[in-house]
Amino acid sequence: MEKLYYVDYPKFLVVTDCVVFCFKDNQLNVLLVKRDFEPSKGAWCLPSAFVNENESIDHTVQRALAAKTGLEDIFIEQVRCFGDVDRDPNARIISIMYYALINIHHYDEKLNKRNNTKWFPVKELPTLMYDQNEMVEVAIKRMRYRTMEKPVGLRMLPHLFTISQLHKLVEAIEDKPRDKRNFRKVVEEAYYIEKTEKIDKSSSKRGAALYRFNQRLYDHYLKHKL
Amino acid sequence: MEKLYYVDYPKFLVVTDCVVFCFKDNQLNVLLVKRDFEPSKGAWCLPSAFVNENESIDHTVQRALAAKTGLEDIFIEQVRCFGDVDRDPNARIISIMYYALINIHHYDEKLNKRNNTKWFPVKELPTLMYDQNEMVEVAIKRMRYRTMEKPVGLRMLPHLFTISQLHKLVEAIEDKPRDKRNFRKVVEEAYYIEKTEKIDKSSSKRGAALYRFNQRLYDHYLKHKL
DNA sequence: TCAAAAGTGTTAAGTTTACACCCATGA
DNA sequence: TCATGGGTGTAAACTTAACACTTTTGA
């Protein structure tokens, strides 16, 4: 098919690079991979994969993430494409950058050794290959915007979470403190976040109420706001 | 160079598609091209170009736009990449979508005949090739967000403009009316928009004050806000 | 008994919205 | 002289930000 019309145009290697975020030790963390092959062997870089024939770019990302995290159907959002000629000095490679949000409790830390991976707090990232530090910056901005607009950040928390956990997550994402009482008010008014009967005793002696996200209520809320 | 490391991976045709906006007849308009070649000859589509070897994707867009509009150094922003396998039924083509903002007064309407192009109000778009109607929707959202965040929308107005012109532009972008007095207040408080001594007499008998965007003041404002 | 995290309301400041009339001028 | 678009201020509603003490309980 293709040959009929577009045979004369140049073709390119295309990869996906993904900034995988989790919430760990009250900080945002990013999963990096230490390359064990040339070029740039030993460099820290983002989980990536070359796009295959007959594979959508979203699928390429999921495949790369499954390989490194063992998880499937991860929340991903495409951010943008990096297409400068010399961004990778070894070859002309067009990169499509995504971010992903995962729940660290679903991640098996034993994978780090097997896969040459490591979680780094976003405030303590090493120098990454090529333009990947810029990618992380851009990904953080987009993720911050998206989590302020939609409750996708909850994917970095357990299914049941306390308001304190959510508070710390939001502070980590926005990189600034929020008043505790005002924050609790906002959560209590977000009616798609529902209080359960359960109590978390792990983080305090007194115990804290556990909340959960209700997708049905959220969909309803989306339909009826304005 | 490339051959050393990545020879085994598949390669892809890559195009850029660009949603070119202008402000015309008090409406947002999009520039469409009627294809004069197969496949899909005769279909309306976005100005596009195949990426060349040794050409950045931003440059590809500028090249496509120069060809269709005769203009150079147009304001562009990349939105995202469309990479589904069957998005173009003729071939696997990865498309990187941009939007562009141009001043219709810089555009020579005689080009339309020569280039098979036509401006369409965004509210009256025809059915476009493949996934391009979705591209336009996504581009409008991004452009709306960006113009609310930064004064880039002014690129669709003349260098000197009246508050009424800006008012109508903003209403067209946001697709909803704004109170006239409140709007004027906002403009007068945006101190990088400065009133000139000049008067526009073309749109009313009384005449309206002409304003202009001051890049220097805007840069200063960016540095000093928070 | 005390350290540590959970939980709780009110007020001030700031922002956004709503709203109606006079002005200047060329045709 | 009148039709047309230009120009003007205030008050109410709403949203956001600031702020400090009491509760519970396991160690």
Description:
- The structure is a homodimer of 226-residue chains.
- In chain A, strand 1 and strand 2 (27-34) form a beta hairpin.
- Chain A starts with a helix and ends with a helix.
- In chain A, strands 1, 2, 3, 4, 5, 6 and 7 form a 7-stranded mixed β-sheet that branches.
- The first copy, chain A, folds into 2 domains: 13-149, Nucleoside Triphosphate Pyrophosphohydrolase (Alpha-Beta Complex), CATH 3.90.79; 157-225, Arc Repressor Mutant, subunit A, CATH 1.10.10.
- Helix content of chain A is 32%, strand content 29%.
- The first copy, chain A, contains 7 helices and 10 strands.
- The model of chain A has no long low-confidence stretch (mean pLDDT 96).
- The A-B interface holds A 1-2, 4-6, 9-14, 38-39, 50-58, 78-81, 83-85, 89-94, 96 and B 1-2, 4-6, 9-14, 38-39, 50-58, 78-81, 83-85, 89-94, 96.
- Chain A binds a DNA duplex (27 and 27 nucleotides) through residues 162-164, 179-182, 184-185, 201, 203-209.
